[in-house]
Amino acid sequence: MTAPVMLIPLKCVRCGTPVPARPGEVAWRCAQCGQGLLLDEVQGVRPLEIHFAAGVAPGVPRRPFWVADGQAALQRVTYSSFGKQTEAAQQFWSAPRRFFVPAFEGTLDALLDVGAGLLQRPVALQEGDPVEFAPVVLLPRDIAALAEFIVVAIEAERKDKIKQVDFALQLSEAALWIL
Ligand SMILES: [Zn+2]
């Protein structure tokens, strides 16, 4: 079944410039005035603060991430009787972690790789100058699901025959950062 196509006029909320939105995109920076814009299924478009990280090497294509602080309460079940990895996991998740949830397009594997890498080696977030960036395709309502996948990806990497991992993830409100 094909969902009905709804055409929402996408215009900058500040200056009225039309947004050249392509299918799948959910956030933009107005080319005219720089206003950040987020697709809202009810309101059409609403303002969004976009943060640009400073200190990223020039020439590297910039990518959008939803950044949120998260706390995962973890319960692991493994096939092996050794508990070292479980201890390591519990210690790792006992502290709040900063989640960098990829908001750009990619295969799930690639996105999880990037997200898991940044969670384990977070980058400093300092405001820099606006730059071009890859299209934003992940809506805020989908952040939690991808963040949970990132936790599972990190746990699956601990080579201890993990059988099952249960966790509850608490995420703060996410901000869009261009890294
Ligand atoms: Zn504008």
- Parts with pLDDT < 50 across at least 5 consecutive residues: none
What is the N-to-C succession of helices and strands? Answer: EEEEEHEHHEE
Distance between the termini: 38 Å
Coarse morphology: elongated
Summarize the main sheet: 5 strands, mixed
Number of strands: 8
Present as ligands are:
zinc ion
Query: Roughly how much helix do the residues carry, as a percent range?
Result: 10-25%
Rg of Cα set: 19 Å
Estimate the strand proportion.
25-35%
Q: Helix tally?
A: 3
Can you walk through the features of this model?
- This protein is α+β, with helices and mostly antiparallel strands and 179 residues long.
- The chain has a domain at 63-102 and 109-122 and 140-178.
- It has three helices and eight strands.
- Strands 4, 5, 6, 7 and 8 form a five-stranded mixed beta sheet that branches.
- Strand 2 and strand 3 form a beta hairpin.
- Helix 2 crosses helix 3.
- The chain is elongated, with a radius of gyration of 19 Å.
- The mean pLDDT is 89.
- Residues 12, 14-15, 17, 30, 32-33, 35 line the site of zinc ion (ZN).
Relevant terms:
179 residues; alpha+beta; five-stranded mixed sheet; three-stranded antiparallel sheet; 3 helices; 8 strands; binds zinc ion
Could you give a short description of this structure?
With 179 residues, this protein is an alpha+beta fold. The protein is 22% helix and 28% strand. It has a domain at 63-102 and 109-122 and 140-178.
